[in-house]
Amino acid sequence: MSFQWIIDNAENISIVKRPVISQTVSRNQRIRTVSRGGNVWKFAVKMPDIMTWNGNSRGYLESIDVNAQLVSQSINLSKTTYDWMTKYRGDAASTATMTFKYNAAQAASNTFKFELGAPGAVGSSLFKAGDLIQPTGSKYVYSTVSAVVKGSATTQLVEVHRGILDTPSDTAVTIKVGPQVIWTVICTRIPTWTFVGKELIQFNGDFEFQEVL
């Protein structure tokens, strides 16, 4: 799991999941915009300025050199010191019984919404904007775009940041939330490194990862 080693030892992590936007300006200076979709998760990771060579670094970097741009791996942000990035912000005592359902009727109506089976008290906050959700058994991670408050119905529609990529099904599945989610990524950029002293190395740039759809 060499990719996870990079994530866990990062000094800085930049995350981008915006859609591809096309903008044109007409002769009378009117701007027209259209979303081309995409919304692929991308991670840029800066490692510490100096790292030791003969600790774990040497073995992990050998694996990265051989496989990083050929083989996808799973990464997560579940490290204890990353809790503030991904923690669940709703009021539910547990999300373990919440379910995700996205069937053909929903796909025909709005591809950005799924049906949440959401037990809990009416008026409670189930999710806040930016919470992370992943259907169990899926490799796709979604973020909520607005607060979700429990209504009187037994289910609730939840809007996410991109069109749902999972295959429509009438079967409801449980969900992973917050630090439980896992991304499947491939490395698109590998920096070189330089020996800067005895058993010390310095990376010449950032690692970049992109979600595999």
| Integer average pLDDT | 90
Give the distance, in angstroms, between the N- and C-terminal Cα atoms.
Answer: 19 Å
Q: Which blocks of ≥5 consecutive residues have pLDDT under 50? A: none
Determine the strand fraction and express it as a percent band: 35-45%
Q: What features would you describe in this structure?
A:
By secondary structure, the chain is mainly beta. The protein folds into two domains: 2-76 and 184-211, no CATH class; 83-180, Elongation Factor Tu (Ef-tu), domain 3 (Beta Barrel), CATH 2.40.30.290. Helices cover 13% and strands 38% of the residues. It has four helices and 18 strands. The protein has helices at 2-8, 57-67, 83-86, 104-109, and strands at residues 12-16, 21-25, 31-35, 42-46, 51-52, 73-75, 99-102, 113-117, 125-127, 132-135, 142-143, 148-149, 155-159, 169-177, 183-189, 193-197, 200-203, 207-211. The chain has a six-stranded antiparallel β-sheet with strand order 11-10-14-7-8-13. The chain has a five-stranded antiparallel β-sheet with strand order 1-4-18-15-6, with helices on one face. Strand 2 (21-25) and strand 3 (31-35) form a beta hairpin. The longest helix has 11 residues, at 57-67. It is globular. The chain starts with a helix and ends with a strand. The model has no long low-confidence stretch (mean pLDDT 90).
